[in-house]
Design brief:
This protein is mainly beta. 6% of the residues lie in helices and 52% in strands. The chain has six helices and 41 strands. The strands form eight sheets. The chain has a 22-stranded antiparallel beta barrel. A hairpin with a 4-residue loop joins strand 11 and strand 12.
């Protein structure tokens, strides 16, 4: 392990903040009472040799985590939550995938009930009627398979429970005219059959004013979502069969961007060329955008069939899944009132998977699991970029008008396009197929000593095509693309990789465990959605030459090492977890904007080294108080970043320091209680990656939430709360732009808000 992690280990150990919810733990805490399924079998969290955080249903409900990305907030080593459907900003220990095209794969694996949820536009769904969420840091491909090179989030929904009628109903109202409702009912319908139906809906107004439309009540970041799930379970003898169907409809505003007035290089140039002052109006909580209605719309449907058979000496599971998603996203990425870059993405995806897993019994010295996984994925997307023709000619190319430009390029007069907009379109399609086989073994040498080896081999094949349409403007292809194709150009490639893991765990005593592990992660290569590879230089503004293919990039790999200690202390009232890690990443896949060629390219940078310490605690000293939280220190160094030859070319988009947690005071009144709960979330200043201009940074922030609740102990709970108590200002991310795109920020956090929730449970 890298020696520089140990100063941080000392600092973190002072606080020791375990991510399992304190309210889920009775007093005293028992290690056997928090069970996780990270290794596809139920195990006590203290005995799992993996850096893992677990959040129970009560924690998820009480902290009002809205969708799968909100789990980032309370998980050590995670960062990059946002209020949209993109997952390219989620970083685990600094590793993320910022490719928003469809030719690559995410670096984080998101799973629901064991089924891979896919990419942006499909992976983000609402948290409702969820039994538990687990977040795993570090490579998880040896167990989870696809695209878990940086880590994984596993969501486990509530299953139909045979033998009883039960359910719940939650309703809430809050600032910004927010209204929430969630309900579920569990119904035995026959001797061996149980039905569970759950639903969720929310609607809210926006909180960001647009200075471009001053005086209008059209605040941005509004949204509404509706989701439902039906599950039917048959359980008799040695068979357990579960059929489920889920659909979610998402209608959100896309994240608005605000350009920075500090970017004088770009704004002064635009002011000079356009002969008027270009100033970004409004306060820092406002935007100034020509796009009146950004969009982030999705429709996601899932069908799943799980069959468990008890074979006596082993258990066989078959998991079959079908997922369909339709996604429409629209944003103004230049963040100004000029029509320089309105980006539109329409995406359709279909995903089919089949897993077979055979698992040994848990009461043997040697336990094992083995299986095979297959998937088929088809993704099609249309990317559209619009810019005002007069700005392209004057600001982009330095002409006095578009007439002079078309005469120089084509010797032809200029004919304005409808609305004066230059529209660039590229259609891409990716047909992905893959399979993997795995074996995981664990041997108990004694009650105290356990070791294990796991390995997976995965093979992926992608058939990718890109079709850059000829521009309908008389300017031709001069902006997003300076060429066009005569129909789709395509290519196919295959990649294969091993993801082994080895670990050893030693129980120092009945309540303390030490473990060490080494793991390899792997993610397949892919194709850029916005570039091509030609056999000879492409003639500007013309048809690409014969032999042109999509631009491919190589697979990426990682070796990760961990040392961990976890257990119970202070008369079993304190649960703690400390993990030190070190990794080396090869061929990191990343997208950046090349200002010379004006293209978005996906490239492999050289190597990334990361190391750090994640510490967490869960303390319940009495019936009257509990505390859970974490402190994380992470350091990353990058080499081979484009033309950078230095030892450290900058960090990845993770805060060096972060912390989050919950503290709750309880006042019992017979079976009932009144409680006061405080939550904190802190992220330090981030070293933005690929920010060679360095104008904007995502500064440190701390958010505090407060909740006052009454729980009857008999199924009735009412909570009044304030989110962002001190009205902290922060943004989700920043971009440093270049060329004609100013540096900007996006994802302005919601200001202070108030709300009330009523929860009714019956069983």
């Amino acid at each position: 392990m890298h020696l520089r992690i140990f100063p941080a280990l000392t600092a973190c150990a002072v606080m020791l903040p375990h991510s399992a919810s304190a309210e889920d733990l009775p007093n005293p805490i028992s290690a056997a009472e928090i069970t996780v399924t990270a290794q596809r079998r139920e195990e006590a969290i203290q005995t799992v040799p993996v850096a893992i955080s677990a959040f129970g249903e009560a924690f998820l409900d009480r902290t009002r985590l809205d969708d799968v990305k909100d789990i980032v907030t309370f998980t050590p080593g995670f960062s990059g939550n946002s209020d949209d459907s993109y997952i390219d900003s989620i970083a685990i220990r600094g590793i993320t995938s910022n490719d928003y095209g469809i030719g690559g794969d995410p670096s984080i694996g998101i799973f629901k009930d064991g089924v891979y949820q896919g990419r942006t536009g499909a992976a983000v769904t609402s948290l409702f009627d969820v039994a538990q969420a687990e977040a795993l840091r570090g490579p998880q491909g040896f167990l989870f398979g696809r695209n878990a090179i940086s880590g994984a989030i596993s969501i486990v929904t509530n299953k139909p429970d045979p033998g009883r009628i039960s359910g719940h109903l939650y309703v809430g109202v809050a600032s910004f005219d927010r209204k929430d409702a969630e309900g579920a009912i569990n119904l035995p319908v026959a001797e061996d059959w149980t039905l569970r139906i759950a639903g969720y809906a929310t609607d809210y107004d926006g909180w960001i004013d647009n200075a471009f439309t001053a005086g209008r009540n059209d605040r941005l970041m509004a949204g509404n979502k509706q989701a439902g799930r039906v599950a039917l379970r048959y359980r008799a003898g040695d068979a357990d069969v579960l059929l489920s169907a889920e659909h979610e409809r998402r209608r959100l505003d896309g994240a608005p961007y605000r350009a920075s007035n500090d970017d004088r290089e770009v704004l002064d140039y635009l002011s000079e060329v356009l002969q008027r002052d270009i100033i970004i109006r409004g306060s820092r909580r406002d935007v100034d955008t020509d796009l009146l209605r950004p969009r982030d719309d999705g429709d996601i449907t899932s069908l799943t069939a799980s069959i468990d058979l008890d074979l006596g000496s082993a258990r066989l599971n078959s998991l079959t899944a079908f997922r369909k998603s339709d996604f429409h996203y629209l944003e103004d990425y230049d963040g100004t009132a000029l029509q320089l870059g309105n980006y539109d993405q329409r995406q359709h995806a279909r995903y089919v998977s089949q897993d077979f897993r055979l698992m040994s019994r848990d009461d043997r010295r040697l336990t094992w699991s083995a299986g095979i996984s297959l998937y088929w994925e088809d993704v099609a997307a249309r990317f559209t970029n619009q810019a005002a023709e007069d700005l392209v000619c004057t600001a982009g190319y330095g002409y006095a008008d578009c007439g002079g430009m078309t005469m120089d390029l084509y010797g032809a007069p200029y004919r304005p396009a409808p609305g004066g907009l230059l529209t660039d379109i590229n259609d891409v399609r990716s047909g992905n197929r893959g399979w993997s086989v795995f074996l995981d073994t664990n041997f108990h040498f004694s009650k105290a000593l356990e070791a294990g080896i796991g390995i997976r081999y995965a093979r992926d094949r992608k058939h990718f095509s890109i079709d850059v349409l000829p521009s309908q403007s008389s300017l031709g292809n001069v902006w997003t693309f300076t060429y066009f194709t005569d129909g789709p150009v395509s290519s196919s490639k295959s990649w294969g990789g091993l993801t082994p893991r080895a670990y050893v765990r030693y129980a120092v005593g009945p309540d303390i465990n030490l473990y060490a592990s080494i793991t390899r992660g792997y993610k397949a290569g892919g194709f850029g959605s916005f570039t091509v590879a030609a056999p000879v230089p492409v003639e500007a503004y013309r048809l690409v030459p014969d032999g042109t293919k999509p631009d491919a990039f190589a697979p990426e790999t990682i070796w990760s090492k961990e040392l961990g200690i976890n257990g119970l202390a202070l008369a079993r009232t304190l649960s703690f977890d400390i993990t030190g890690f070190h990794y080396r990443y090869r061929n990191l896949q990343t997208v950046y904007f090349d200002t010379e060629s004006r293209t978005q390219q996906v490239v492999n940078v050289g190597s990334v080294t990361g190391y750090g310490v994640e510490s967490a605690l869960n303390w319940k000293p009495s019936r009257y108080f509990d505390l859970s939280g974490h402190v994380t220190w992470t350091r990353t160094e990058k080499q081979g970043d484009r033309d950078c030859g230095q030892k450290d070319c900058g960090g990845l988009p993770n805060p060096i320091w972060s912390s989050a947690g919950v503290a709750t005071g309880h006042y019992p009144i017979g079976p009932a209680e009144i409680y006061l709960q405080g939550e904190w979330m802190h992220e330090g200043r981030r070293r933005e990656s690929f920010d060679w201009r360095g104008i904007t940074r995502r500064e440190a922030y701390t958010q505090i939430n407060l909740r006052l609740g009454y729980d009857s102990g008999r199924g009735v709970e009412i909570v009044a709360y304030v989110q962002n108590l001190f009205d902290a200002y922060f943004v989700r991310g920043v971009e440093n732009g270049g060329d004609l795109t100013p540096a900007n920020s996006w994802g302005i956090a919601q200001p202070r808000s108030f709300g009330v929730d009523l929860r009714l449970r019956f069983r």
